Amino acid sequence: MKTSDTTRRLGLAMAIGMAAAAWSGAAPAQPGWPGKPIRLLVAGPPGGTADTLARLAADGLKDLGQPVIVEAKPGGSGVIAINDLLANGRDGHTLLVIQGGAVSEMPLVNKVKFNPFGDMKPLAQISRTGLVMVANKALNLHGVADVVKYGQAQKDGLDFASYATGMKGHTLGMQFGHLTHVKMHHVGYKGSPQALVDLMGGQVPLMFDGVTTSLPLIKGGRIDAIAVSYPTRIAALPDVPTFKELGYPQLAQASWFAIWSRPDVAAGVQQKIREATLRYFEQPAARRSLQDLGMEPGQPITPEAMMADAKAAYQEQAALLKAIGFQPE
User: Fold this and answer.
1) pLDDT at position 152, please?
2) Are 78 and 72 spatial neighbours (Cβ–Cβ below 8 Å)?
3) 31: which DSSP letter?
4) Which end of the chain is less enclosed by CB atoms within 10 A, N or C?
5) Considering only the top CATH level, what class is 6-129+254-323?
């Protein structure tokens, strides 16, 4: 399998972004913008991770002088929200909060009609996080070594759940099996909630999940956290080691949320959105809110750097899916 090195990839992306610094001096904003309330779309249900992040971002965007309305557009693995952005976002009054995986993972799993690297643009990174390997409490698995020993003892292999077939939670589990010589069997779910219910109930012993959705159950002692894929330890789980420090740097992967727009929004408008967002998330209170969600603060890298990172992640994910014989729907 192809080895992933998120840290090196991010460094390259930052270098590209610095070289593209002229972006910030582009054309001025259209006169009178914003001239009406800003719609901030969320590719997920009300109360979900993206919705919570969008409501934080909305507080920062209100400084631009207009109300900000957060609208949940769940369904279609993000396609419904993206289509709304593309249909209504030309004037910069419709924006989207979504993970970078919307362009680096989802188009590899589902056939889409939009160009993921041409029809939308990340303006400001809101947060960064990774996945966490979690285990059924009754198994008493307290480290990667325990998981490997348990998995190798399973005659028919080790089942593991993920929140979506073909996404990072799926490929990370298969990578783990390849590196540890454990035969892994993927059990795909449509979202984390039911997968976590089955994990607690013992229907599946293991899961690779987003930190945000597993965090309350970890804190409540209902499931065990084994390791995180983020390159460094996550502040919300300071006692949970990283795969990297345990000797698996190939599993060091970071994902990020950002505010996105159409690329043809006036450059000055894009810059105003970016600056207001970054300024808000520099505040200690906003950073504490991210930590409560199991996330790390976003980085002030440029849109060009974020897109370069997403393109590299797309290539890595495509190689991983090819290696496991995955066929898109």
Assistant:
1) 96
2) no
3) T
4) C
5) alpha beta
Indicate the CATH number of 131-251 among 3.40.50.10190, 3.40.190.10, 3.30.160.20, 3.60.130.10: 3.40.190.10
What's the gap between Cα 98 and its chain centre? 8
Tens digits of residue pLDDT in 183-242: 999 999 988 999 999 999 999 999 999 999 999 999 999 999 999 999 999 999 999 999
Task: Enumerate the domain spans of the chain.
Answer: 6-129+254-323, 131-251
Half-sphere exposure of 110 (CA within 13 A, CB side): 17
Query: CA triplet 166, 244, 306: central angle to 5 degrees?
Result: 60
37, 36, 54: which is closest to 45 by C-alpha? Answer: 54
- Reported pTM: 0.85
**Cβ neighbourhood burial of 178 (10 Å; 0-12, 13-18, 19+):** middle
Cβ–Cβ < 8 Å for 94, 265: no
**pLDDT band, residue 17 (cuts 50/70/90):** very low
Distance CA 72, CA 43 (A): 6
Distance between CA atoms of 186 and 207, rounded to whole angstroms? Answer: 9
CA separation, residue 191 to residues 73, 74, 94, 171, 233 (Å)? 15, 12, 26, 16, 25
Encode pLDDT of 137-191 as tens digits: 999 999 999 999 999 999 999 999 999 899 999 999 999 999 999 999 999 998 8
**Mean pLDDT (whole number) for 256-285:** 97
6-129+254-323 and 131-251 have identical folds: yes
Q: Tokens for 284? A: 């200690």
Pairing of strands 121-129, 296-297: antiparallel
Q: Give yes or no for residue 31 having a pLDDT over 90.
A: no
